[in-house]
Amino acid sequence: MTDSPRVLRLTAGPDVTGEYEEKRSRFVAVLRRCDDEDDARALIAELRTAHPSARHHCSAFIVDVPGASRIERSNDDGEPSGTAGTPMLDVLRGSGLTGVCAVVVRWFGGTKLGTGGLARAYSAAVSEAVDAAWRDGRVVEVASTPSWTAEVDHAVAGGLEGALRSAGARVMGVDYGRRVTLTVAGELDVLGPILAARTSGGVEWEAAGVATSENAAGRRDMGS
């Protein structure tokens, strides 16, 4: 049985950077968590403004769109076609990260590197930033779990909540009104019997979408 691919993201927080230098050309990569395409384009524009003296501001990003195909874009920003944005995007793909944008700011050192040298330099700068993200604990794994709601009497609410937590379910909300509404994330084959036992089978869970959580990720070979 094959495990589902991991979904990895950067934590929110300061940008992650990596740097590579060759023949006095300096390549500084900036990685940022981006929730959508607008966030990614905002980083690109921000770095153009911050570093107007740089020769190139090349970019690549990957963002997920709920209910649609993943968006992957890259831009060579005046470098020879395929020598900057595509190698950068390849590094992001290989890292397993999504919801992320990489921009490499290049200051020209006076010596041309050739197409192979450029591809190597842009890849190396982004790889350095990805490695820094792992070293600094900035990579998290996103877990998606179905969520459910149920309305129960006050008399059983406390015991039900405790039983759910003991079974490893994530109780996301408890709303006390005329009755008590619990919102829980977990697998139905675990939650169903607990609710049935506490309510004598008189209450059933109702689907409430999907809940996500982010947990520290351990690095491993993404191809394994």
Structure description:
With 224 residues, the chain is of the alpha+beta class. Helix content is 32%, strand content 35%. The protein has helices spanning 37-50, 85-95, 114-135, 154-166, 188-199, and strands at residues 8-10, 16-22, 25-33, 56-63, 71-75, 100-107, 139-152, 170-176, 180-185, 206-216. α2 (85-95) packs parallel to α3 and α4 (154-166) packs antiparallel against α5. The chain is elongated, with a radius of gyration of 23 Å. 34% of the residues are buried. The model has no long low-confidence stretch (mean pLDDT 92).
What's the structural blueprint in terms of helices and strands?
Elements lengths: L7 E3 L5 E7 L2 E9 L3 H14 L5 E8 L7 E5 L9 H11 L4 E8 L6 H22 L3 E14 L1 H13 L3 E7 L3 E6 L2 H12 L6 E11 L8
Antiparallel strand pairs: 1-7, 2-3, 3-6, 4-5, 4-6, 7-9, 7-10, 8-9
Helix pairs in contact: 2-3, 4-5
Average predicted confidence as pLDDT: 92
Oligomer: single chain
What's the helix-strand series? EEEHEEHEHEHEEHE
- Classification by helices and strands: alpha+beta
Largest sheet: 5 strands, antiparallel
Computed CA radius of gyration, to the nearest angstrom: 23 Å
End-to-end gap = 13 Å
Into which percent range does the helicity of residues fall?
Answer: 25-40%
Shape: elongated
- Flag low-confidence runs: none
Number of helices in the DSSP assignment: 5
Strand content: 25-35%
Query: How many strand units?
Result: 10
